[in-house]
């Protein structure tokens, strides 16, 4: 005797309808999964295509940068020989010409290096070579290097135990240089540039401040955009590159500024555990 023989027709009809609805839902779910999978594959393919285009563009810029930097380095080397008197004494007018040549050569070399760094960041071609390092030591060494190149008074507040971070030394040093050069460029003549290093709540914090003109809200919103600059000597890429480097390390960059009262740039990156500090 059939299992459903004693069931009323309405119950059997309801069961059939429920079964059909379940089948329809299962088929619809399968179709959605297949559609999502295809969309995901298409998105991945598009992402790979865009990455390939960005990589190709970065490689072209790298080739161009190399072709530009090589003759510029030779020009700067020849200029340094003339400046130090290796080819004989210069007149006062010749020295002024040499200063112009050297300043502009250095500016163009800096621009090509920034363009190369920006292209590599945009194409996500930077491979982080992470190693454990002491942020205090890195900042101390960087400030010492900066003092050899700049006349501005650089003040360092870096007291305390080592702050271990997991970072790419070369990239983090580049970020420090960018922040320092930006602060020096916009400081009032003769005023100090202050570096302050601290830690708290699992974060290492570096603050670089000057006593410059400060920036208004409009400039503040645009200062990390590529090629935005308010300085004749700036490339407009330094802060963009710095922000990208800090974010690659899992950190953030912040700006505290008041018009005519100076600016402080902060960046934070996570600290790492070090058994020697426990």
Automatic annotation (TrEMBL):
One of its GO terms (cellular component) is plasma membrane. Its EC number is 2.7.13.3. It holds the Pfam family HisKA. PANTHER family: HISTIDINE KINASE, TWO-COMPONENT HISTIDINE KINASE. Keywords: Kinase, Phosphoprotein, Transferase, Two-component regulatory system. This is histidine kinase. It catalyses: ATP + protein L-histidine = ADP + protein N-phospho-L-histidine. It comes from the Bacteria. Residues 63-273 form the Histidine kinase domain. Coiled coil: none annotated. GO terms for molecular function: phosphorelay sensor kinase activity.
């Amino acid at each position: 005797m059939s299992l459903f023989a004693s069931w009323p027709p309405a119950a059997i009809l309801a069961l059939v309808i429920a079964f059909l609805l379940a089948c329809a839902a299962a088929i619809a779910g399968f179709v959605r999964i297949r559609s999502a999978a295809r969309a995901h594959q298409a998105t991945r393919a598009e992402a790979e295509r865009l990455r390939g285009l960005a990589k190709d563009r970065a490689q072209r810029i790298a080739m161009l940068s190399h072709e530009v930097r090589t003759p510029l380095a030779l020009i700067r080397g020849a200029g340094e020989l003339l400046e130090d008197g290796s080819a004989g004494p210069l007149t006062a007018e010749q020295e002024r010409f040499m200063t112009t040549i050297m300043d502009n050569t250095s500016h163009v070399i800096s621009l090509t290096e920034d363009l190369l760094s920006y292209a590599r960041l945009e194409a996500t071609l930077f491979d982080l070579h992470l190693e454990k390092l002491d942020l205090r030591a890195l900042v101390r060494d960087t400030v010492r290097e900066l003092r050899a190149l700049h006349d501005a008074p650089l003040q360092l507040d870096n007291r305390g135990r080592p702050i271990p971070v997991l970072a790419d030394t070369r990239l983090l040093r580049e970020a420090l240089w960018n922040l320092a050069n930006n602060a020096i460029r916009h400081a009032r003549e003769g005023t100090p540039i202050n570096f302050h290093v601290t830690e708290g709540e699992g974060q290492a914090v570096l603050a670089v401040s000057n006593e410059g003109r400060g920036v208004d809200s409009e400039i503040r919103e645009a200062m990390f955009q590529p090629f935005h600059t308010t300085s004749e000597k700036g490339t407009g890429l330094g802060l963009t590159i710095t922000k990208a480097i800090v974010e690659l390390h899992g950190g953030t960059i912040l700006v505290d500024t008041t018009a005519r009262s100076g600016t402080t740039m902060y960046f934070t990156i996570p600290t790492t555990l070090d058994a020697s500090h426990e």
